[in-house]
User: Fold this.
Amino acid sequence: MKLGVVGLPNVGKSTLFNAVTGAGAEAATYPFCTIEPNTGVAFVPDARLEGLGKMYYPRKMVPAFVEFVDIAGLVRGASRGEGLGNKFLSHIREVDAIVHVVRCFEDENIIHVAGKVDPVGDVDTVNLELILADLDTVQRRGERARKLFKTGEKRYVLEAETADALAAHLETERPARTCALSEEQREIVRGWFLLTEKPVLYALNVAEDMAGRPPDESPGVSAILARAETEGAQALAISARVEAEIAELEPEDKAAFLADLGIGRSGLERLVEAGYALLGLISFLTIGEDEVRAWTIRRGTRAPQAAGKIHTDFERGFIRAEVVPYDTLMEKGGMPACRELGLVRSEGRDYILRDGDVALFRFNV
Assistant:
């Protein structure tokens, strides 16, 4: 599961990517500094691991992580091949969700490709190119389906109807994810890998002096927050430059730096958490003297498949899952106490893991 970091050139994508992942991608003040995508991982902040660590003193603690891909800047006309054009769009097609970085700061030393800072206009530029690329895909899908009407299969009629409905929606410059489709139609569309069907998180890159300030102090930030709400997208304000400085600090210095800024938590932590949720991911936990670990699963994953994340034998020979919520475990002082109180549930194959479940899997192969 990958998050693609996209946006216009010179909006701070690589700076933010480096701060989040520590990957060391080149970041410069000229367009197209990034050409080939850079990939890195970021650990997902989880206070529950710290709590379990104090209870079990394991030899190691392993957090969940999420993968970020830093993608080259898009320019107006990308859907027609301008800039890195089709190459850029193909890189977006390969990720599962989009972190759209929007420049909301002024800096005369950093060139804006349009000549002026305009957050709303920048969002419109990127979104329009993605919409135009999707419109082309949808129209071709509709034409293909209509050619197959003669086979007599009803699914081609539904495909054509879906393509027509989506094309009409996209022509109003709205993303595919906001189109009202039936679940059956939505299933068809998933196979088309549309760019604007992907969930989006707007990362509003603000000036250093705006870090931690209320959004309504910046008209650009306020406008994008409102836009995100109408699109069913998420948004958060973050200063890539400040976060890059924070990322270089030791933990104790980091806390002091954040306190001086009047910020409770770093923007990077909020960004990674939001990205993790955007991908539809949750964590279940395993405990022991050797290791306390957060395991990543999709929301809605059943117990055998969750067990398979640990080892394929766990899924193949699954018998049951012994589960207790993290909060209950911490409140009662550990697994033995929870067992004595009858708070450890025995769950079968149909159980769907919840975020924060502490789980022990019984299996036999």
Q: What stands out?
A: Residues 12 and 240 are 7 Å apart (CA to CA). The chain is about 40% helix and 20% strand. Residues 119-147 form the longest helix (29 residues).
